Amino acid sequence: MARRALVSGGAGFIGSNLVKFLLAHGVSVCNVDALTYAANLDSLADLGAGDYTFVLADIRDRDAMRELLEQFDPDLVFHLAAESHVDRSIEGPAVFVTTNVLGTFTLLDVARELWTANGRAVDSRRFVHVSTDEVYGSLGDDGLFTETTRYDPSSPYAASKAGADHLAHAYFRTYGLPVIVTNCSNNYGPRQFPEKLIPLMITRALSGEPMPVYGAGNNVRDWLYVDDHCEALWAAAERGTPGRDYNIGGNQERRNIDVVRAICAEVERARPARTNEALAGKQYEELITFVDDRPGHDFRYAIDASRIARELSWEPSETFESGLEKTVRWYLENARWVERATSGEYRDWIDKNYAERLEARDAR
After folding, report:
1. Cα angle vertex 256, ends 252, 259, to 5°?
2. What gap in Å lies between CA 55 and CA 65, rounded to an integer?
3. What are the phi and psi torsion angles at 309 (to 5°)?
4. Separation CA 328–CA 284 (nearest Å)
């Protein structure tokens, strides 16, 4: 049977990569996105009509979500729509609560209404709620996050995602909605908005600008290449057990400072500093600038992904080195995408072409 998937937040980083992955696997996709600042339709500009549909709508809009699920009638929902930048959540937490918690509630509740009959969920459907390892808080030098690790979020972003996870769990236990929750480590790869660490460092290096690193750069993250993440989400949807949690990690822990130095080395291989006039004679590592640490900065995240490996036969294909090489190459080969993303030109195009619908969205 042909599969039909609704992807919320499909104009974002992971979402746009997932949309392309699903289409390549013969799945019809409806991408619903509110087109907030980090949504970039340039990432999907090469997609035509046929098995792909884009709908501008806000997951907090119950009427819009109900109409969409009724009309498209997906058997798979991949819920990725979220505010996701920690620094922005510290500066303005309200939108993180409304989008990540209330938006998740709305989508879950509409799916419950439409998918369940007499309190029993339709067996062929799956609702994959995509979350983060940041809900677990911070690790010390040792240990790994497992699916039973106690939630201990540090930032407003992580707390809002934790609240969304709890709602997803509750909708399975209370209503039998076939929900699967995934918690992933730090993603990287093509089409990531330049505010995040790896694309920020790549674009800053290429333009000869300072490369800011929090504190001494000793905070540790586990890095997951986005294509590996898409494979894992597909495995969860196809073979995962409703009500089950799956941690998705890359098994690639690195200190932030080591990530930045690796980026400098990879950019040097791809575009030697001597050929980059923007550096004015400097080396890439000379751009590294240490800045004051951010409040509540978790020291270390690390995922134990043994459950998804054991139960769903998924493991990451990319090492950090191979994934970083692909990522740097993509940013070098897609200079126009980068230019439009960093200058805001991508946003001007969205504001012009979707003006009326954006105004209607903001009026709600």
Report:
1. 60
2. 10
3. -70, -45
4. 14
3-state secondary structure of 185: coil
Q: CA 140, CA 334: separation in Å to the nearest integer?
A: 38
3 state DSSP class of 222: strand
| Coil, strand or helix at 125 | coil
Q: Specify burial of residue 71 (Cβ count, 10 A radius: 0-12, 13-18, 19+).
A: exposed
Residue matched to tokens 């392309």? 20
Sequential pLDDT tens for the chain (364 residues): 569 999 999 999 999 999 999 999 999 999 999 999 889 999 999 987 679 999 999 999 999 999 999 999 999 999 999 998 888 899 999 999 999 999 999 999 999 999 986 666 677 899 999 999 999 999 999 999 999 999 999 999 999 999 999 999 999 999 999 999 999 999 999 999 988 999 999 999 999 999 999 999 999 999 999 999 999 999 999 999 999 999 999 999 999 999 999 999 999 999 999 999 999 999 999 999 999 998 888 899 999 999 999 999 999 999 999 999 999 999 999 999 999 999 999 998 888 888 777 776 666 6
What is the distance, to the nearest Å, from the Cα of residue 64 to the centroid of all Cα atoms in its chain?
Answer: 23
CA dihedral sign, ordered 270, 272, 277, 279: positive
The pTM for the full model equals 0.94
Alpha-carbon Rg for the chain in angstroms? 20
- Catalytic, 134? Answer yes
**Domains of the chain as residue ranges with CATH:** 4-363 (3.40.50.720)
The 10 Å CB-count burial string (b at 16+, else e) for 325-350 is bbbbebbeebeebbebbbeeebbeeb
Question: Which of 33, 61, 134, 231 is flagged as catalytic?
Answer: 134
Name the active-site residue from 52, 136, 157, 301. Answer: 157
Single out the residue of 241, 250, 273, 247 nearest to residue 324, CA to CA: 250
Among 58, 61, 83, 133, the one annotated catalytic: 133
Both tokens of 358, joined, read: 């954006």
**What is the DSSP annotation of 142-169?**
S--B-TTSPP---SHHHHHHHHHHHHHH
Phi, psi for residue 84 in degrees, rounded to 5:
-135, 5
